[in-house]
Design brief:
About 40% of the residues lie in helices and about 15% in strands. With about 300 residues, the protein is α/β, with parallel strands linked by helices. It is flat, with a radius of gyration of 21 Å. Strand 6, helix 6 and strand 7 form a beta-alpha-beta unit. The structure holds iron/sulfur cluster.
Length: about 300
């Protein structure tokens, strides 16, 4: 089977830096001092296992404040997705040593939202409920930020009359969905200040995958089901590229039946997927037998 390697794919700068920080802290810890990551450092099970082997324990509780209750001593590492100021304060109050592995792109969004609120704006934040990144941003000023997930919610949004309004977003959303929601908000509130904060890594990976979809029969995205940016890659290939797409965590998840009567398979990977996992997936697809000529002609 022919594989088209879609680039860019895989690790982004935020993930590389978060892993580097966590491994360093794990290596430098005193033997009796626990090091805990508060939630998945990045949304990938292979990375999590590697970090656990390096001495960093996972508290998997999705609610960071509840998770913090399980951390009794030592060092706590905040994940690449960012953290709310309330959790940072609570960690310090508990006497924990705090290490922040928030991606610099997420920190920039936090700084932006803080500035907007200080300047008197109410903020509409486009993001996915239950994901740690929106939870971190909302914590900056819960009473002044409204989370919106869809065009329907943008339509239903009620705003405070007389207060300036701004919109920003989670870094790993679909470029196209986010634009559609922003466009609707601009239609409803022409004076709204727009700050599209989808990060460059997400944008480039999505655009490359949609472009490649033109020249392949199907796209395989290597990434975890927990990973927002991996899920969005599947979604944009299906919705914008018009081709089937499948999310696999490892080569073991590949179902050869997906590729019946297909010749060229595109492969990309989420921003938190280790390169060796993607390499193994590419090798496994390349090892599959090519479809017979008759089946392809009959398409
Ligand atoms: S996907 Fe974007 S925001 Fe998330 S860690 Fe990578 S660079 Fe940072």
């Amino acid at each position: 089977m022919e594989v088209v390697r879609i680039t860019p794919r895989g690790y982004c700068h935020g993930v590389v830096e978060a892993i580097r920080i966590a491994k360093r802290v794990g290596a430098e810890r005193a033997t009796d001092e626990p090091v805990t990551m508060l939630g998945y450092l990045v949304h990938n099970e292979h990375v999590t296992r590697e970090l656990e082997e390096a001495g960093v324990t996972l508290v998997a509780e999705p609610d960071r404040m509840k998770g913090l209750e399980q951390v009794r001593a030592g060092t706590v590492i905040f994940t690449a997705h960012g953290i709310s100021p309330q959790v940072v304060r609570a960690a310090r109050d508990r006497g924990l040593n705090v290490v922040d592995a928030t991606c610099s792109d997420v920190t920039r969004t936090h700084d932006l939202v803080r500035q907007l609120v200080d300047d008197g704006h109410d903020v509409v934040y486009i993001g996915k409920r239950g994901h740690p990144e929106p939870a971190g941003v909302m914590g900056i000023a819960p009473e002044r930020i409204t989370l919106v997930e869809s065009i329907e919610e943008a339509d239903a949004l009620e705003v405070h009359p007389g207060r300036p309004l701004a919109v920003t977003c989670q870094t790993t959303l679909s470029v196209w969905d986010t634009k559609a929601i922003i466009d609707r908000l601009v239609e409803r509130f022409p004076d709204i200040e727009v700050h599209n904060e989808i990060c460059l890594a997400t944008q480039e990976r999505q655009e490359a995958a949609v472009l490649a979809a033109d020249n392949v029969d199907c796209v395989v995205v290597v990434g975890s089901t927990r990973s927002s940016n991996s899920q969005r890659l599947v979604q944009v290939v299906q919705e914008k590229g018009g081709k089937p797409a499948h999310l696999v965590d490892t080569a073991a998840d590949i179902d050869p039946a997906w590729f019946r009567r297909m010749q060229r398979i595109g492969v990309t990977a989420g921003a938190s997927t280790p390169t060796q996992i993607t390499r193994a997936v590419i090798a496994a697809i390349e090892a599959l037998p090519a479809p017979d000529a008759e089946a392809v002609t009959a398409r």
